[in-house]
């Protein structure tokens, strides 16, 4: 069921929180993408997330909290590196990884001895977590491997009829998943790039390619139905069955096919916000092949480049 009224209204949040407390699944908006939420401390609820998404069970779930102090019971120690980032960027699109306590079940952490935690910057998400009274595990609310959802209709297309409730909070303002930083050591290490860049936090970039440290990166993600070819120079004349993912400054150069722009090449935030919706629009167009222009190789586009190249990975 989709709740189309204002998600901040207590009646809807209380209903969603009741579902979480009873071990059910609720899709809810955050500033990054829509999350598929369940009680992070309930092993059966965590297993339901994996089953609903078709997600590999060794791919950890991110635990969402509503106050920075809520991290203490979940972790053995909040390191100085983590404390610095929490003070700088919470609430916001940053996930920190720390050693977990026994309170967090292995089902939530994919069997790892660490836990990924973030505090989202969205009133509906924070309200849901507070009313639930438990930390909420929430990967993206989509079928595993598909483009992440940035609108409630994206969730419904993938999981409608499978989960207990979808909260409609409109379009997500960031549009890509959070930056993930391993803070178990003295210096944070980026395992997944996001809107908060390595340069912004003084972290070591590039570790998102190390599958030993970030299990989710061994799987294909974010992919539309049609294969993607990433190239600096996509063909300007397209067949009617092809698509082109481009920027505003080249859109007028294409003929034929389905042409979708991410926005201005100078605006990484806009491109990130539009990316997943653009991929889903190609599904609706029924294209057989997508040519994607390579984004600029600059720090602000690092997260978009990561998602695009992973979406283009072969099966």
Approximate shape: globular
Low confidence ranges: 3-8, 205-213
Mean pLDDT: 91
Helix content: 25-40%
Largest sheet: 10 strands, mixed
Beta-strand percent range: 15-25%
Sequence of secondary-structure elements? EHEEHEHEHEHEHEEEHEEHEHEH
Radius of gyration: 19 Å
Strand order of the largest sheet: 1-8-2-3-7-4-6-5-9-10
CATH superfamily of the largest domain: DHBP synthase
Number-wise, the strands total: 14
CATH architecture of the largest domain: Alpha-Beta Complex
Summarize the SSE layout with pairings:
Blueprint: E1 2-3, H1 10-21, E2 26-28, E3 35-39, H2 43-53, E4 62-64, H3 80-89, E5 94-99, H4 106-109, E6 114-118, H5 123-132, E7 136-137, H6 152-159, E8 165-167, E9 179-182, E10 189-192, H7 198-201, E11 228-231, E12 242-246, H8 248-251, E13 258-261, H9 268-285, E14 289-293, H10 302-311
Helix pairs in contact: 1-5
Please, could you describe this protein's structure?
This protein has 315 residues and is α/β, with parallel strands linked by helices. The chain is 29% helix and 17% strand. The chain folds into two domains: 2-218, DHBP synthase, CATH 3.90.870; 228-311, Rossmann fold (3-Layer(aba) Sandwich). The protein has helices spanning 10-21, 43-53, 80-89, 106-109, 123-132, 152-159, 198-201, 248-251, 268-285, 302-311, and strands at residues 2-3, 26-28, 35-39, 62-64, 94-99, 114-118, 136-137, 165-167, 179-182, 189-192, 228-231, 242-246, 258-261, 289-293. The strands form two sheets. A ten-stranded mixed β-sheet has the order 1-8-2-3-7-4-6-5-9-10, sandwiched between helices. A four-stranded parallel β-sheet has the order 11-14-12-13. The longest helix has 18 residues, at 268-285. The chain is globular and about 55 Å long. The model is unreliable at 3-8 and 205-213 (pLDDT under 50).
């Amino acid at each position: 069921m989709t709740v189309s009224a204002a998600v901040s209204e207590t009646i809807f949040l209380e209903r969603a929180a009741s579902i979480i407390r009873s071990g059910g699944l609720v899709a809810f908006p955050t500033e990054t993408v829509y999350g598929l939420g369940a009680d992070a401390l309930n092993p059966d609820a965590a297993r339901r997330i994996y089953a609903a998404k078709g997600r590999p069970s060794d791919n950890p779930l991110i635990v969402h909290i509503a106050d920075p102090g809520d991290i203490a019971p979940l972790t053995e120690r909040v390191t100085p590196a983590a404390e610095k980032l929490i003070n700088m960027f919470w609430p916001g699109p940053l996930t920190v990884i720390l050693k977990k306590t026994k309170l967090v079940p292995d089902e939530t952490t994919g069997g790892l001895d660490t836990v990924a935690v973030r505090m989202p910057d969205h009133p509906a998400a924070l309200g849901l977590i507070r009313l639930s009274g438990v930390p909420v595990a929430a990967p993206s609310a989509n079928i595993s491997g598909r483009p992440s959802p940035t609108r409630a209709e994206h969730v419904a297309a993938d999981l409608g009829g499978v989960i207990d409730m979808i909260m409609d909070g409109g379009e997500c303002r960031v549009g890509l998943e959070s930056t993930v930083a391993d803070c178990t050591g003295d210096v944070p290490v980026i395992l997944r790039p996001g809107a908060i860049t390595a340069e912004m936090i003084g972290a070591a970039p590039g570790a998102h390619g190390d599958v030993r440290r970030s299990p989710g990166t061994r799987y294909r993600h974010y992919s539309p139905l049609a294969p993607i070819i990433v190239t600096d120079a996509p063909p300007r004349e397209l067949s009617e069955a092809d698509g082109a993912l481009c920027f505003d400054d080249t859109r007028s150069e294409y003929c034929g096919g389905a042409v979708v722009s991410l926005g201005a090449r100078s605006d990484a935030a806009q491109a990130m916000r539009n990316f997943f919706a653009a991929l889903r629009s190609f599904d609706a167009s029924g294209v057989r092949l997508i040519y994607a222009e390579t984004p600029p190789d600059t720090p602000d586009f690092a997260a978009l480049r990561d998602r695009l190249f992973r979406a283009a990975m072969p099966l």
